[in-house]
Structures are given as structure tokens and as C-alpha cells.
Design goal:
Length: 128
């Protein structure tokens, strides 16, 4: 079920901001979108906390890298202060299914948890 409530729209807007090369190049802009208790299980299999993901992703942006493309972005508001997003990304041919939990705080909607799972085009079929 896709719910385009204002909360889902805010989470989608912030998720897309996190993928923006300008935001990814700035520890301040990137970090401002992450909850203090942020955790990620990355597509690489690594576990990241807020400080480590900000350090790694903003340390050395790849010059000339193609932008990340997203598809199948869907969201549902699970509670007044929680939104779950699912979507796929393609980064220079690397395909990843993604799942994000966003929490509303006094600072707005912040990414609390994220997980990425690599997949191949042959595994991409269906809407499931």
C-alpha cells in the first residue's frame, strides 16, 4: 500500500536529498538528515552508525560519477512519527533494493534506519 500523506512526502523529499551529490559532499548537510541514533546495514554488508556513514560518504565524492537514479519509490506512514520507504537505486550499474525508516523529531523527519540489498536485473522482476 502506498500512502502519499504529508509525512510520506516529507520522507521521500529527504530521502532524495540524501542522494543529491551536493548533499553527499557536505558532512553538515548530510548529517542534518540523520537521526542521532541512525544505523545502516549497507549493501556491502557493513554496519554503519551516524558518525561512520557521514565520514565515509562525504570523505571523497567521486568526480564525474553519474547521479544515483531511483525507481519504485513507495512509502507508508506506520505511526504518527514513523514512515517506511522502499525503493531501488542504480549507481553506475550497481542495483540495490533499499528500505528506510524515517522518524519525526523536533528537527523534522530524520533517517533512523536504512538497509540496502544488492540485486541483479534478472532478480528485479515483479512489484513484490
Amino acid at each position: 500500500m502506498t500512502d502519499r500523506s504529508p509525512a510520506v512526502e516529507a520522507a521521500i523529499e529527504n530521502e532524495l536529498r540524501l542522494l543529491d551529490p551536493e548533499v553527499r559532499a557536505s558532512p553538515e548537510l548530510f548529517g542534518d538528515l540523520l537521526h542521532p541514533e541512525f544505523t545502516e546495514f549497507g549493501a556491502s554488508g557493513a554496519r554503519w552508525d551516524r558518525a561512520s556513514i557521514v565520514r565515509v560518504l562525504t570523505a571523497s565524492p567521486e568526480p564525474g560519477a553519474r547521479p544515483v537514479t531511483t525507481s519504485r519509490m513507495r512509502g507508508v506512514q506506520l505511526a504518527d512519527d514513523v514512515v517506511h520507504l522502499t525503493f531501488d537505486t542504480d549507481t553506475n550499474g550497481r542495483l540495490v533494493h533499499r528500505s528506510s525508516l524515517w522518524r519525526r523529531t523536533g528537527d523534522g523527519w530524520l533517517l533512523w534506519f536504512h538497509q540496502g540489498t544488492p540485486f541483479t536485473r534478472s532478480e528485479a522482476g515483479g512489484d513484490g
